[in-house]
Amino acid sequence: MKDAKEKVAVDASVKEHSSRGRTTTSDSIHDSMSRYVTLLFAAACGISVANIYFAQPILDNLSGEFGIEHSTLGILITITQIFYGVGLLLLVPLGDLLNQRRLIIGQMLLSVIALVIVGTATSSSVLFVGMALVGLLAVVTQTLVAFAATIAAPAERGRVVGKITSGIVIGILLARTISGVLTDLAGWRSVYLVSAALMFLMVCGLCRVLPNVEREVQSLSYPQLLRSVLILFVQERILRIRAILATLIFVAFSILWTSLVLPLSAPPLSLSHTAIGAFGIAGVAGALAAAKAGKLADRGYGQRTTGLALIILLISWLFISYTEQSLITLVIGIVLLDLAVQAVHVTNQSMIFALRKEARSRLTAGYMVFYSIGSAIGSITSTYIYAHYGWGGVCLLGASVSALALLFWAMTLRATAIEKL
């Protein structure tokens, strides 16, 4: 076990420089994480992650443009998600090995190219390749989160991570709405070309504020780096617990957001796609409210925050179950669900970032893989359940997963308390 830890470890001695090459102290880098820089990180993350969700409301447009059969059109979304998962495993851990500033800028510039490829695609083959690259490079969001946790002062790490993670959730929720609006105004290609322009502006902004942190690292090869992600799971109990919680809460999150369009677009509601997309704004309200969860984690209330949030998550399904009778109760349920999921997610990240400062990128990669697994499970199961058991079955499924998450947290909390005795 000792040898394994030595293999995972990266020399923590750091030479830190500002983005203009000036040598700075650790404290001065921590001071640089101002509100402006935090919001810039959040905006960059939101735009980056939105890129993998833009296609969902415009699949019909892509089908007509490229002659893709409706039966195979879903592959576009699947490819993007698969390559996002590949990026989590292969690219995010590089943040512990390479210069993070260069890695972030490089990935974002490549994302600009990938978005231009999609926006100017002339064949379905080029479109599929472009979407795969968009998914692969969108993981720069997680590199940004890990880097922010590194340069933020320990006392404010949870608050910073909370705000940046809120930017990610807002990007996910508003991507569909923005995509639909831009498509109506200027065609589907404008979605990706506008995003490419915004990504380039983010690169320009980040170039000015990202500190240049040079590490003297051990001779760790790339295969060893990837293996060390698995070693971290063996060594860190908190990582294992929080990864399972991430799976469960994102199963619940995906159950709602994947299947919600089905009852809203069907009689008696029969809402338009624009109206359906507007419900994402309610989710944004919940995500913003949960940003304070990071502050509570900083003060040592991570477990209490988790328990309260999971109770709220379970209660939210009661309101969501009345969707077909009242859209007001649905809005309340969405706010509660997104508040709860975001609060647990921020708390999870705050707790795992405190484990090993030299391995934050690998901790992020390992944790977010379970996020992707949970999202995929929720998407697949929710549409199947709706087809066979209707909206009531979907809500029962969501409530059951939420109850399982609460039960798992309670069991692990008790086990942890016994270990400390």
From TrEMBL:
Alphabetical list of PROSITE patterns matching this protein = MFS
GO function terms (MF aspect): transmembrane transporter activity
* SUPFAM superfamilies listed in its UniProt record: MFS general substrate transporter
Q: Which InterPro entries match?
A: MFS, MFS_dom, MFS_trans_sf
Major facilitator superfamily (MFS) profile domain: from which residue to which, for each copy?
37-417
Q: Which UniProt keywords apply?
A: Membrane, Transmembrane, Transmembrane helix, Transport
Subcellular localization(s) per the UniProt record: Cell membrane
Q: Name one GO cellular component term.
A: plasma membrane
Origin: domain of life: Bacteria
Q: Which residues cross the membrane?
A: 36-59, 71-91, 103-121, 127-153, 160-178, 190-210, 243-264, 270-289, 301-320, 326-344, 365-385, 391-411
| Residue ranges with Basic and acidic residues bias | 1-19
Instruction: Provide the membrane topology annotation.
Output: Multi-pass membrane protein
What ranges does the record give for the region Disordered, renumbered to this chain?
1-27
User: Which residues belong to the signal peptide in this entry?
Assistant: none
Q: What is this protein called?
A: MFS permease protein
Source organism per UniProt: Paenibacillus pini JCM 16418
